[in-house]
């Protein structure tokens, strides 16, 4: 395996680290006129351990591609992975991860009551003989049964939290030891549902030693002030960086509560 960064995003993903099933935002791509395309990795099977049989995969592709458009606006494309472990979904100008999850849930529920595979004929399909409605329903049931795990690829893989922090450029402001601490905090917060995820935006409220943030606080702000509101009337962002911002919520002599917003 090479460490060279490749052009294809999935080739840079360590498939031995992820835990399926999951729904992962692959990336956001901007058009010349301001449009944004959001691409999702919808992984049904654990890479290199299992895969979808081709007739089931093929029928799921037809069913989901047709039915998801009843629940989600601006769908550009839905297609299978060559490795037969999942699918890619691309939508335009819709940044809501939760909306995608809800739409996919409703779509798979539609699959369970479908009486036929759409466009399953030689005129509309290039391999009409390779379909299985029964197989598609079985895979839909398996994926729906593990809905609670769709976001768990984040929780089960600490390296992802570290990569989020690394990508956010927050490392410019804090020493390495604190970054590991923050990565652990992210994971714990995700497990306890005290973290908010909106597509590619992650928000965390965390307590840190005041000494860590004091170098970035304006001179006119008093560290010993009992509250952020009293001492920071017109001061909102502690500092901004490439992929997010940090805001003071509360300041005390020994510790401060800050809100970290990462765009990953």
From TrEMBL:
<keyword id="KW-0408">Iron</keyword>
<keyword id="KW-0673">Quorum sensing</keyword>
<feature type="binding site">
    <location>
        <position position="62"/>
    </location>
    <ligand>
        <name>Fe cation</name>
    </ligand>
</feature>
<keyword id="KW-0479">Metal-binding</keyword>
<dbReference type="GO" id="GO:0009372">
    <property type="term" value="P:quorum sensing"/>
</dbReference>
<comment type="similarity">
    <text>Belongs to the LuxS family.</text>
</comment>
<protein>
    <recommendedName>
        <fullName>S-ribosylhomocysteine lyase</fullName>
        <ecNumber>4.4.1.21</ecNumber>
    </recommendedName>
</protein>
<keyword id="KW-0071">Autoinducer synthesis</keyword>
<dbReference type="InterPro" id="IPR037005">
    <property type="entry name" value="LuxS_sf"/>
</dbReference>
<feature type="binding site">
    <location>
        <position position="58"/>
    </location>
    <ligand>
        <name>Fe cation</name>
    </ligand>
</feature>
<keyword id="KW-0456">Lyase</keyword>
<dbReference type="InterPro" id="IPR003815">
    <property type="entry name" value="S-ribosylhomocysteinase"/>
</dbReference>
<comment type="subunit">
    <text>Homodimer.</text>
</comment>
<dbReference type="GO" id="GO:0043768">
    <property type="term" value="F:S-ribosylhomocysteine lyase activity"/>
</dbReference>
<dbReference type="GO" id="GO:0005506">
    <property type="term" value="F:iron ion binding"/>
</dbReference>
<dbReference type="Pfam" id="PF02664">
    <property type="entry name" value="LuxS"/>
</dbReference>
<dbReference type="InterPro" id="IPR011249">
    <property type="entry name" value="Metalloenz_LuxS/M16"/>
</dbReference>
<comment type="function">
    <text>Involved in the synthesis of autoinducer 2 (AI-2) which is secreted by bacteria and is used to communicate both the cell density and the metabolic potential of the environment. The regulation of gene expression in response to changes in cell density is called quorum sensing. Catalyzes the transformation of S-ribosylhomocysteine (RHC) to homocysteine (HC) and 4,5-dihydroxy-2,3-pentadione (DPD).</text>
</comment>
<feature type="binding site">
    <location>
        <position position="125"/>
    </location>
    <ligand>
        <name>Fe cation</name>
    </ligand>
</feature>
